[in-house]
Amino acid sequence: MPPLFDAYVIVDWSASNAPCWGRDSIWIAALERSVTAGRTRTRLLLTNPRTRTEARESLHATLARLVARGARVLTGFDFPFGYPAGFARRLGLRGCPWRATWDELARLVVDAPTNANNRFAVAAELNRRLGDEPFPFWGCPTGSESSYLVARGRRPHGVADLAERRLIDLRVRRAQPVWKLAYTGAAGSQALMGIPVVRALRDALPAARVWPFETGFDARADNDARVVLAEVYPSFFEVSVPKGAVRDAVQVESVAREFARLDASGAFALLLAGPRLSARDRQRVVTEECWMLGVT
Predict the structure, then answer these.
(1) What is the pLDDT of residues 202-233, one digit of tens each?
(2) Is 290 helix (H, G, I), strand (E, B) or coil?
(3) H-type helices in 95-228, by residue range?
(4) How far apart are CA 274 and CA 43, in angstroms?
(5) Which of 21, 62, 122, 197 falls between 20 and 30 A from 190, CA-CA?
């Protein structure tokens, strides 16, 4: 079976408040496959945009170029695409939960070209709307604390609360809850600052679809999808980081190469098919929580 994709773009995101590069910044690995005179060649470009605006513009240009070339592209981002089931409903949002949440975050989040942003104010406002208390979002600099957001010490989740973890986070225990905005391993801030960017890319590219929200657990089913956008977790893949290298850079390059290898072997369809889930859990994942591509 021929590969499902011709290119693999893997993105390590950042919620930094200022332009930055190197460690804890944005890294993008773009691996392209081409066939010339019967020989398959691959080319990988690793870039380190200083701001989210620069990254979004670069990604759009890359994806648009690949689509114009006739390529099919798998694009993975290393932050959660969704929140535990019930999030959209408790915010009073209407429509498909994942899309309503994405639209609301795009409306609330302000992200300047300098990386200055209002993510902690957004988290506090969401806490206010969800329960009029500093919960479930937490983690911020002391200067950003308020009645609706605390640096540490938020109360535990109860049975009547939104769950602390999504279904995928229960499978991958190293993954941190999406409510955690700061400190070691946190991805909550990246989700707040990243989801509006993925939404913008998806809407700017008519041939783009989000896995598994729009494709189901089979990206082959939508033949019109030239760009498949997915949540990935690079730390799920074992990589060796040479001394002096930036781990994030090594990880995105390694995941792009691994996805290309699996696709060339015919095994990538198994990743797109996702996990074995009950009908109820599958519905929960594809309408609101999302899943990490590569975890089956």
Answers:
(1) 999 989 999 999 999 986 656 679 999 999 99
(2) coil
(3) 97-108, 119-131, 167-171, 188-204
(4) 28
(5) 62
